[in-house]
Specification:
About 30% of the residues lie in helices and about 20% in strands. By secondary structure, it is an alpha/beta fold. It has an 8-stranded parallel beta barrel, surrounded by 4 helices.
Length: about 220
Amino acid sequence: MIKVSASIMCGNSMKYGEELRRLEEANVDLIHFDMMDGSFVPNIAMGLYLLEAMKKNTNIPFDVHLAAWEPSRYYEEIAGYGVEYLSIHAEAVKHLHRDIQKINSLGMGAGVVLNPATNANVLEYIIEDIKMVTVMTVDPGFAGQKFIPSQLKKIQEVKKMAEKYNKDLLISVDGNINANTIPNCVANGANVLVAGTSSIFKGDDADYKKLVEIMKESV
Ligand code: DX5
Ligand code: ZN
């Protein structure tokens, strides 16, 4: 079952309430909420207050992508908002196993994000403890970038590990995901599609429901 996770960072920042209504009508499965610290990634995006407000404003489950150094500073706060999935970067922590246990203990589904140059084998000793892996198909920080084809091989490697150790693992792809890039991502094992500027968020008059259908039809 393919899930669409709408990257709300790509929405109209002056109309987030309206964007959430449109995404509800479009039946997206998840809200992908990009939090960026301006240091681990070169952009600053979407802080705690906005996460709290948005979480109160919709029933769509949240897939938080925390692109920040020392992410453990925020786990309790984010869990307190009722966030369903919290994904941290393997490259941003010294003790990935401890961080994953902490996120799980707070009742959230723990996820690991892998940057384009990071090998899938970092998952080897924690793949059974996580609910989601996000394979970055662009360098994290900005929307509107080009898909990195080398990541298709990594998706396949993650899928092989999931088949052996974690059959229910959500395998998400994040960055320039659209009707052209979706077929190969899904064929290699992706089952969560992060929808940004190249798929759903095409402006105030875009038909989100239709665009989500196109994504799901292109698998
Ligand atoms: C980039 C973010 C992505 C991005 C997706 O760092 O993680 O979620 O917003 O946007 P597109 O689909 O335009 O690449
Ligand atoms: Zn993201």
